[in-house]
Amino acid sequence: MGKKVKKEVEPPPKDVFDPLSIESKKAATVVLMLNSPEEEVLAKACDAIYKFASKGDENKVTLLGLGAVEPLFKLVSHEDPLVRRNATMVFGIMASNNDVRKLLRELDVTNSVIARLAPEEDIVVHEFASLCLAHMAVEYTSKVQIFEQGGLEPLIRLLSSPDPDVKKNSVECIYHLVQDFQSRAAVRELNAIPALLELLKSEYPVVQLLALKTFGVISNDRETRIILRENQGLDHLFKILETKEFNDLHVEALAVVANCLEDVDTMQLIQQTGGLKKLLSFAEMSTIPDIQKNAAKAITKAAYDPENRRILHEEEIEKCLVTLLGTDNDGAKAAASQAISAMCESLASKDAFGIQGIPQLVQLLSSENEEVKEGAAIALANLTTASPSNASAVAEAEGIEPLINVLSAKRDGTIANAATVLTNMATQEPLRFSIQSRGVMNAIVEPLQSTNSLVQSKAALTVAALGCDADARTELRNAGGLEPLVKLLHSKNDEVRRNACWAVMVCASDELTAVELCRLGALDILEEINLSTGRKNNFSEGALDKLLDNNLSQKYSQMGYLSSSNIITDGFYDYGQVKPGVKLLSLEELNLQELNDHRAIILVNAKLPDVSFSAEDKSQDRYDGRTTSSSSSIRKSSKERARFVADKMGGPIERDKLHEFSWELHISEIEFELKCNVVPIGKIKKGTFYHRALLFKVIADRIGIGCSLVRGEYGRAWNEVKLVDDSPQGITGLLLPPQVYILDLMYQPGCLMKQGSAEADHYQHI
Q1: What is the DSSP letter of 10?
Q2: DSSP secondary-structure letter at 572?
Q3: What average pLDDT does the segment 453-478 reach?
Q4: Helix, strand, or coil here: 530?
Q5: How far apart are CA 300 and CA 412, in angstroms?
Q6: Which residues contact 751 (CB under 8 A, 6 or more apart)?
Q7: How far apart are CA 571 and CA 604, in angstroms?
């Protein structure tokens, strides 16, 4: 054999770079590598960045500052699977940072990330792409982008992934998306409910919890509840509730059950299968406050339907709710109170709660927790509405003082409902007196000044209910409550304005209060309201009439008329006609004015002279609100009074010599003597039509003769009396309708002129 010759090794090509292993300790260097054309370099750079970003939020911010997000965005769609996977992993972990998400939204990355959910992608890509979307779906703008770019369908498909992390991320993203109603509808259409129900069987509590939270949102829609029921969703929920190991899921499961109970079909199904008894027992026996609270909320939702209330009453729901009132948890107490309020629509439940629950609710009014206090007030308001027995039960439970105390509570709902309870109780006279004796009118002033229209309305209604007694009106007046009440007449809220008118009508039942209301401007406001067809209400006209009827000076000055039922008492003064909108000054203010040449104000404020009247006159009974004596006796009595008035005021005057009757000079002399524009009627010795008519009305009112006072023009005024003519001969017992007569006090004192006759017309007008 020949000698072997050593084979020479061929040198490497001159244009090939020898492989170089780089070890970098700078994140900036690795970020630069993201722009490399080599797939292996890109994959390793993404892997290094993923590990760096996973260590904390500060590192994510550092990478953001180094400009890593933009090149990573390009790599998410890279053709190399490994590069694409590693870049997606970085996106998934980086998206937890708010600043990173902001940039991702600006770059509009959702479409590229959704593409990574495709079935052919690696399961790790699914995990981190769904994680990125779950982080982004927290913001509304991203929710819209994910939905509009078709992200919901692949996310629902991934609910069946064999990887628990993919399931967790997908259901979390769906949970965020269904906060919007469009996504909720799409979830139904894409048949996601069976897949979500399967997640309830997961061995991972976080997956179960997210599925329950998603159901808690989508089950607000009736269509979803029907699908849930058809897919035996209630069985899944009750299995969770019956498993003690799942107690951390019970609160969310109850929230879904609460929504389902709104449907009567579901309620009936749960009752038939014994689930309702289990639910109520579960609520009573649980030691977890949030479970008790959610159980009460479930009952509240269900109780809005009449048939559901019937079913709940059959299951003795009242005992359960009263038990929850006695728990140590404020949230459960408040929720139980709300449930009682809802159940009160059922009369049977209302009666049952009256026996069992009112004492406990009264105690809750003194709670330091504002939510509990409000819940108790709402429940008591509904319990006492149209239920005198429950109103009495509140008083027996010593509830009046706590109710008055919460009129100064922090929450408007508490105040409004406490006022409602007091109003409901005030329909019974003994309870009304008891409420009034505890200073309620002082306490109601603050609610009257509230800026909340519901509080204003209920407070005004309380005043209307309690102001029918003089002491209560005095208390309200002294407490400064009339001013805020009058301000409520200006309200643009129809109910507030209506109740304020009602309260004013009630409060105007005595002269002092009526005068004060007029001083505060109530009269002008009511006149304005009554001129508006849109603002006028059932009580505005009544309030105006009542106000004037108890402030006759104002009424006569403004309307020029006092009826037979308007009884003039001391303190009345005739100011003369006032124009609409002109405020009538009080007597005190008028007395302080300097003497002027205006018309004298005629004051009624003196004891009448002792006049001798016959026994027949004194024993007259009232008729038509005034008298029932025979026509002849009334005529006789009227003539005597007319002559008396005429004699006191200068005697009869001949028609053609009326201009010679110098009554103006006489009145001026009295004014000068008194140094005052206010002239007591008893000092007038020469009086004309309006002086005499006023004096006759004063006397007639004091001895019981029905008489009205009418102001005419140019100083004219007259009295009208209603008389019943005697029955025609041969017809006994026939009661003819009364006719109106004008009484002559000037020319032929005592002469009665039939209204509408030529002589009456001549007397009334110049």
Answers
A1: P
A2: E
A3: 96
A4: helix
A5: 21
A6: 639, 642, 743, 744
A7: 6
Take residue 212 and report the two structure tokens written for it. Answer: 């329950």
CA–CA dist 615, 432 (Å, integer):
43
pLDDT over 60 at 619, yes or no: no
Name residue 610's amino acid: D
Radius of gyration in angstroms for the set of CA atoms belonging to the chain, rounded to a whole number: 44
Residue 372 and residue 334 in contact, taking contact as beta carbons nearer than 8 Å: yes
Does the pLDDT of residue 501 top 90, yes or no? yes
In this structure, whether the domain defined by 455-550 belongs to CATH 1.25.10.10 is answered with yes
Structure tokens at 751: 């002469």
Q: Where are the beta strands (DSSP E) in 499-644?
A: 561-562, 572-574, 601-604
Residue 673, phi-psi category: left (phi > 0), alpha (psi -120 to 50), beta (remainder) = alpha
**571-590 pLDDT tens trace:** 999 999 987 667 788 888 89
- Residue 733 gets which letter from DSSP? S
Q: What is the phi/psi pair of residue 723, to 5°? A: -125, 145
Q: Could you give the maximum distance between any two Cα atoms of the chain, in Å?
A: 180
Closest CA to 507 of 531, 492, 488, 485: 485
Report, as an integer, the average pLDDT of 524-548.
91
Beta-carbon contacts of residue 20 (< 8 Å; ≥ 6 apart): none
Phi, psi of 574 (to 5 degrees): -100, 105
> Please, which residues have CB within 8 angstroms of residue 384's CB and are 6 or more apart in sequence?
390, 391, 394, 420, 421, 424, 425
User: pLDDT digits over 696-745, tens only?
Assistant: 999 999 988 889 999 999 899 999 998 876 656 656 666 678 889 999 99
Residue pointed to by tokens 């982008």: 145
Give the dihedral of Cα atoms 759, 760, 761, 766; nearest 10 deg.
80
Q: How confident is the model over 56-107, as pLDDT tens digits?
A: 999 999 999 999 999 999 999 999 999 999 999 999 999 999 999 999 999 9
Residues 6+ apart with CB under 8 A from 216: 252, 255, 256, 259
DSSP state of 408: G
Helices (runs of H) and strands (runs of E) counted in the chain: 46, 8
The H or E element that residue 335 is part of is helix 330-343
Q: What gap in Å lies between CA 69 and CA 446, rounded to an integer?
A: 59
Between 248 and 543, where is the model more confident? Answer: 543
- Classify strands 752-754 and 717-723 as parallel, antiparallel or unpaired: unpaired
Residue 731 structure tokens: 């017809």
pLDDT score at 632: 66
Q: In the predicted model, what is the mean pLDDT of the chain? A: 89
Distance CA 603, CA 678 (A): 6
Domain ranges of the chain: 455-550, 561-764
In the numeric block, the tokens 């009247």 are attached to 613
- How far, in Å, CA of 720 to CA of 137, rounded? 84
Q: Which of 723, 540, 545 shows the shortest CA–CA distance to 639?
A: 723
Model-level pTM greater than 0.85?
A: no
Distances (CA, A) of 549 to 333, 463, 510, 695, 715: 50, 20, 9, 19, 23
Token pair, residue 346, equals 């059922």
Coil vs helix vs strand at 185: helix
